[in-house]
């Protein structure tokens, strides 16, 4: 088993605490303006993507320059506010997604390396216990429940 080390960092606790504080402050500042969707609710609504953002912004422009086509039943002030929310929050979402992706990748790499090292240690303890090393036996017994191989789930026959 290869133990190529891809990441070797020590993040100071003060940095973790400061970032946590800043993220919590950001969440608190935005909380009065953010709204959650009930589970399954996203499936039933139209969503703006990269292509539709430009379309909606163009429609916003047209409602100003050619307002005679704005239907009387369209709430134009609310439409303008909704466009502003999308325009204002999109950069924050993009930044948050980049941060999430970087955090997720870093945790994945460090977690992989930590798990591989733990497996190496477990293998050494298992071997020592098998050779009768008394101090290895209780460690092996404790860890063996966590390192049992899980067989592939058997698929039911579909004949």
Summarize the structure.
By secondary structure, the chain is mainly alpha-helical.
What does this structure look like?
By secondary structure, the chain is mostly helical. It has a domain at 50-144. It is built from four helices and no strands. The protein has helices at residues 13-30, 50-65, 76-130, 136-144. Helix 2 (50-65) packs antiparallel against helix 3 and helix 3 packs antiparallel against helix 4 (136-144). The radius of gyration is 27 Å and the shape is elongated. The model has no long low-confidence stretch (mean pLDDT 91).
Number of beta-strand segments: 0
Q: How far is it from the N-terminal to the C-terminal residue, by CA?
A: 40 Å
Work out the radius of gyration.
27 Å
Shape label: elongated
Mean pLDDT value = 91
Q: DSSP strand (E) fraction?
A: under 5%
Structural class based on helices, strands and sheet pairing: mainly alpha
Number of helical segments with 4 or more residues? 4
The largest sheet, given as strand count, sense and whether it forms a barrel, is: none
What's the helix-strand series?
HHHH
Low-pLDDT parts are none
Helix content: 55-70%
